[in-house]
Amino acid sequence: MSSLGNIAEIAVAAPLPKTLSYSVPESLQGSLCIGSRVKIPLGRRTVVGFVLDRSDGDKNGLKPIREILDDDPLFPATLVPLFRRVADYYCHPLGQVIATALPAGLAGRGEPPPILWETFVRPGENREQPRGQQQRNILALVRKHEEVTLSELRQQFSHVHAPLKRLVELGMLQTRKAEKIRDPFLDWPTRGDTPPSLTQDQQQTMEQLAPLLTDGGFHACLLHGVTGSGKTEIYLQSIAQIIADDRQALVLVPEIALTPQLVSRFRARFAPKPEELKENTARIAVLHSGLSDGERFDTWRRIARQEVDIVIGARSAVFAPLSRLGIIIVDEEHEASYKQGEGLRYHARDTALLRGQMEQSVVLCGSATPALTSWQLAAGGKARLFELPNRVAGRPLPEVELLDMKQEPFGTQLSQPLSLALEQTLEKGEQALLLLNRRGFAPFMLCADCGKTFRCPNCDITLTFHRQERKLRCHYCDFIMKPPDTCPGCSGCNLEPEGIGTERLEMELQELLPDARIARMDRDTMAAKGAHRKLLEQVGRREIDILIGTQMVAKGHDFPDVTLVGVLNADASLNFPDFRAGERTFALLAQVAGRAGRGERAGKVIIQTYEPDHYALDCAARHDYQGFVTQELTLRQALGYPPFGYLVNLVLSGNQADRTRDAATNLAQRLLEGTKVELLGPAPCILARLRGKSRYQILLKATTRQPLRQALHHLENMRQPVPSGVSLHVDVDPVDMF
Ligand code: ADP
Ligand code: ZN
């Protein structure tokens, strides 16, 4: 609780450079908390703001706060320094940082979901029996269960209102109202588990970690463990220590929908068993984008009231309003999805490190393929490194074969060796996983007569053909058109889908292996809520023989009977025009390979490629992370790219190409005059047109952060960095450059 003060510092979710001061009226003195939302006058409007601080001072000329909107604060005061730091680091208005952190509807645009209430009925002091039959029935039921909800009573009995009222008057029953928490995970089955005895590697790691967990300070830790080495067990045991100390744990995972197994493992270890479960007592909360607004709002408030010990969530959960944070775990810390691509372009792992520093907690980042920047932090002594070099139970890593597609007949999509391996896997009654990082039926439609292709009118790319829905689709803006029957260019009728996507692979594979049970996992088939979980459970129950999918299939799934993994187009990600293409490809291959042979039987991986000699593929095939890192770091150093340099990308976009380009040229000029950074561009973005806008970028580069910060400061102080009709986005530490 802050000391009282007659002036409040308030942030508003608007592009304002500074926070605002308001006076605290007498009537609100006692109830105004840091972390509450308030209504304040701003100009001629009334807006929603967040209370960040209270102080005493001269309130002359300050307008008063109108109203407090929440009974309980939405975030603890301990989070305010993080918000400030993130706003500063990512060059984003503080109020908008907070709006990004909070569940939707709390920042003034729209209303938050209503709070639901539930009435609970329990036996009262009066232990006698009532006279009426209805009253007796209701009373018997309540006495039997000790506490029931009013809605349960209504389900059981046709008349509840009058008899209940009477029973309460008689003192035989009493009621209380409590919030009804919307939480889709509360009814997830929890089978309890007992911690296994640790492997030697795990034990060693825990011994070194333990003192860091108990000393109450900030420690950045990197857990580098090969796939299947038991990193999750390290997370679980670290958390057990933290909560035994009455502190809290935050677990970040790349995308919850894709990792229901992980959530289950945490629940198995920590969630109360059904018999212990009274309402709202589960100590685990799960926060992710798949929740409804109501579920998200309720979960958030439960965390803000400090009713949970463990929060598991995707990217934005890094802002979860825990106030006694002891550890932040960032699982699969190399994942690009930790970086938000619009608005506040923050990176959840980096934000976790900032938060750990501010709140003095351990930050444990785990991966089989750590990001080069994280690896370099450890190498430079800024993070502690822990290694799990072996799979548990002495299981070998799978054998990986790089299959040179130049040796296969031209146009082959599924090579002979891979289809043979699939057949053998099925014969043995084992399962296979196929990665093809391209959804849809075919990447484009081509006129065989005149060579015409179909492009998105809004974006600078070809449209993907989706066969089942008979549509050509833009994968960036979702523009849709019906494929014409004849070519609009030459009126010929030889329009043909070219190349292969997951939809086509599924169809062709089903023709090849008619008895196989094949399922597909990509954004098209996984649109429905809970679809991932259902499909992954089917795979777990062995109702699926072959799972085909985009990179979704590479995530941390643990299926002991998957013994074959095939990768169809390993080169696709290698040829991206991005300095991280090698790193991404290596990580993707190592991760997907890591799905094979996790059980008793050994696994095999076949990677189809046109570039089998590329070091990223070669190292992935040999499970040689160190080797990859050594070569990749040499390249990065030569070019001054991260981790040897720092980048800020300025992206300008506008409806008119000329105007946008001129604005970029002009801005670059002004930046050059004021700063000492290296400036690349302006140049058209790789996606030079996106959703109807022309796009240009200016890349700022420096060997230390200081000059970049200066440049950003200079930018912030410019009166009008870009003219109207052009918008500017600042991307600090960009992870892709499209
Ligand atoms: P990672 O996260 O490193 O890929 P997991 O944590 O998923 O690895 O562990 C792989 C498998 O090994 C899981 O099925 C897990 O239950 C099991 N496992 C982990 N640690 C142990 C242990 N100490 N003893 C036995 N089994 C373990
Ligand atoms: Zn488009």
Give a description of the structure.
The chain is α/β, with parallel strands linked by helices and 738 residues long. The chain folds into six domains: 7-101, PriA, 3(prime) DNA-binding domain (GIY-YIG endonuclease), CATH 3.40.1440; 117-179, Arc Repressor Mutant, subunit A (Orthogonal Bundle); 200-392, P-loop containing nucleotide triphosphate hydrolases (Rossmann fold), CATH 3.40.50.300; 395-442 and 499-635, P-loop containing nucleotide triphosphate hydrolases (Rossmann fold, 3-Layer(aba) Sandwich), CATH 3.40.50.300; 443-496, no CATH class; 646-732, Ribosomal protein S10 (Alpha-Beta Plaits). Helices cover 30% and strands 23% of the residues. The chain has 20 helices and 30 strands. The strands form seven sheets. It has a seven-stranded parallel beta sheet with strand order 11-12-10-13-14-9-15, sandwiched between helices. The protein has a six-stranded parallel beta sheet with strand order 16-26-25-17-24-23, with helices on both faces. A five-stranded antiparallel beta sheet has the order 2-1-4-3-5. Helix 9 links the parallel strand 11 (284-287) and strand 12 (310-313). Helix 1 (80-90) crosses helix 10 and helix 3 (133-145) crosses helix 5 (161-169). The longest helix has 18 residues, at 657-674. It is globular and about 85 Å long. Zinc ion is lined by residues 456, 458-459, 474, 476-477, 479.
